[in-house]
Amino acid sequence: MSELVFATNNKHKTEEVGNLLRGQYKVLNLTDIGCTVDIPETGSTFAENATLKSSYVVQNYQLDCFADDSGLEIEALNQEPGIYSARYSGIKDDATNLNLVLQKMEGESNRKARFRTVVSLFKDHKNYLFEGVINGQIAEKPIGDQGFGYDPIFIPDGYEVSFAQMSMEQKNEISHRAIAMRKLIAFLKEQ
After folding, report:
1. What residues form the catalytic site here (predicted)?
2. Which residues line the annotated binding site for substrate?
């Protein structure tokens, strides 16, 4: 089985993507390859940040790599938190960031939001980009205890439950990351 590096230290994301690629690729994360550097995400878009991470691994470890940058974009907040989703409050703390969003959304009737992921795959010295989007609504309060990040306040369109109320299998069927990863997998199968 071929190995691919996923440029992340987030064990939840590694597990989520590992499940999607099971049987086709062994997914390694940064810890697995001994990379302890916090790769700077200095880009102004999801695509730029994903590419910074994947190209860093290729340049420094000579391994094929993919990386994603994902975030929650809320219409009423001018697409915030966007690329700052993981550190919206100024720190990387899921509960603090989620509570800041709920605070800013207090009394707001427009609850439209979307999760967006861009995956950058560096393979054979070329960069390929894949995007996934899922639209939904921001709940009034956190619901559910599965998932991570903003999952407890995001209710995907067509559902009456939050991402945090879904099993990983259910979420993997419809999530923004799953959509982008399916595009990546389809591309890898064509190679």
Report:
1. 69
2. 8-13, 70, 148-151, 171, 176-177
For residue 144, the model assigns a pLDDT of 95
Binding-site residue ranges: 8-13, 69-70, 148-151, 171, 176-177
Looking at residue 169, what is its pLDDT?
87
Residue ranges at the known binding site for Mg(2+) = 69
Per the structure block, which two tokens stand in for 165? 């109320």
- Catalytic residues, by residue number, are 69
Q: Which H, E and C letters describe the chain, residue by residue? A: CEEEEECCCCHHHHHHHHHHHCCCEEEECCCCCCCCCCCCCCCCCHHHHHHHHHHHHHHHHCCCEEEEEEEEEEHHHCCEEHHHHHHCCCCCCHHHHHHHHHHHHCCCCCCEEEEEEEEEEEECCEEEEEEEEEEEEECCCCCCCCCCCCHHHEEECCCCCCHHHCCHHHHHHHCHHHHHHHHHHHHHHHC
Q: How confident is the model at residue 25 (pLDDT cuts 50, 70, 90)?
A: confident
